[in-house]
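Format is chain and fold; as here:
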Amino acid sequence: MLTTDKKRRGNPVKTSRIERDYAAQLTEVARQVGAIINGFPPGDPGSAPTIEQILRRYTDAMTEWSLSTASRMIAAVNHQDARTWNAMAAEMSRALRGEIRNAPTGEAMRALLAEQVVLIKSIPLEAAQRVHRLTLEGLENGARASEVVREIMRSGEVSAGRARTIARTEVARTAAVLTQARAESIGSEGYIWRTSDVDARPSHAAMNGKYVRWDSPPTLDALTGHAGCLPNCRCYPEPVIPK
């Protein structure tokens, strides 16, 4: 058996620029969310239903944009993943190189696209739910009214944080899923867990160098997933492939 990343120079699938671009586009959604919410008197119970309605309409209207934005991100990550595999093709037999080029990544990409659209559209939907919850808290506890108002006015900031988390997590997850699809297509049964950050979470740092089967993702901190597929995870899978 051999791995795809013998020299260990960090994640061979370069996605930092893709992540920055994706984050910029998603934070623009958050900015629009903040502008909608802050256009109404914060904490006014009469405004909450209107805000929720507008945000839900905004969510419905952004379906095509979400598809386009997510498609570009996935295509860019797929291109980088394919380049990584092509770079190490010299170590493989001609038969394996052919199998990699024809790896069935289409199904994985379609699933990733559907998941990305749901996540993008969750940004305004979660903001609407947050405004509703905070407004109810203001009604139930008048002593906290000023705090509720401040929190409602922070909705754009909160949405921006959510957007950055989605971008950071989903670009890494997309890379890991496509790597898995290509690896499994040539008979790989697992990978070596690699960490990218010196400040990796203890549970993730403890996984560094361990072999993981593709069909048995580990559970870390009550979350189950492969390297690169967990929230804010900078780890990545180093596939072990047939020699």
Notes: The helical segments are 16-37, 48-61, 63-87, 94-101, 106-140, 145-153, 155-185, 202-205.
